[in-house]
Amino acid sequence: MELSDVGMQPPGQVMSDLLRLTGSVRRALPSSNRRQYLFRTAFSAANHAAPRRPGQQQQQQDRSPESRLCLLTADLHRRQSLAIMLAAVSSLSFPLPTLAESSDAGELRLFSSQKQGYTMQIPATWEQKSKSGADVLFVGKGADVGVTVSPIRINSLREFGTVEAVGDRLLGAEKAKESTESAAMLSTSSREGAQGTPIYTYDYKVDTTRGKKRIVSTVAIKDRKLYICNGTVKCTAPGLDCDPAGGPGVVEAVEAVSQSFDVL
């Protein structure tokens, strides 16, 4: 199906074709029923239409077929981009290091990728490792931080919505996973980077059938690139309270990395 065909199909068929168009994205992620289900959930959230203002319905009816087609195509791009971002943020996880590995949350060192265009501060004793799908991965005692960079069709996070609106969709996608037993958002924040780029951060806890985690995800979009800095802390006990397996200072270390993340 070509994008130009979208405006000539019934709504149900459009949604079906949206899912088919993102097949290549799903294949790029680890193939599991859980993540395919997450994609369907993300699309459902993205497909929720905002209430129309008075007169907007008549204005849309007065548009020419060519204008309506352009609007539908643009909306298709936005929905695809939102689904990709939600799936990437809530599916991004790396194997946590064992407790035998050393970590020190005190001293930080600068890491910068000129190729991909981002920078952040990393605990000096954390070890850099290779991981499929990650641009870079650092692991410490009971925690890790990984960064992914991928192309996207929009130019700014603000095109998705407010930090709260995107956070609600992200948490909903986490709760929809088959392995999730409970999830709670601790905090959301937004800031601008040194170049004025909007950056959203989400701090939340997830209790799963495979264990409990605290996740700090920082997201930015610049030059049609989606940046996700994802920090994961392993917890020792079930429930929403997180006792870091890596000991005191681990959560603070991950938060420091998140706060230092910026795009160039």
Automatic annotation (TrEMBL):
GO CC annotation: extrinsic component of membrane; photosystem II oxygen evolving complex
The PsbP C-terminal domain, residue ranges: 108-231
InterPro entries: Mog1/PsbP_a/b/a-sand (IPR016123), PsbP_C (IPR002683)
One GO term (biological process): photosynthesis
Domain of life the protein comes from: Eukaryota
One MF annotation (Gene Ontology) recorded for this entry: calcium ion binding
Gene3D superfamilies found in the cross-reference section: Mog1/PsbP, alpha/beta/alpha sandwich (3.40.1000.10)
Protein name in UniProt: PsbP C-terminal domain-containing protein
Organism: Coccomyxa viridis
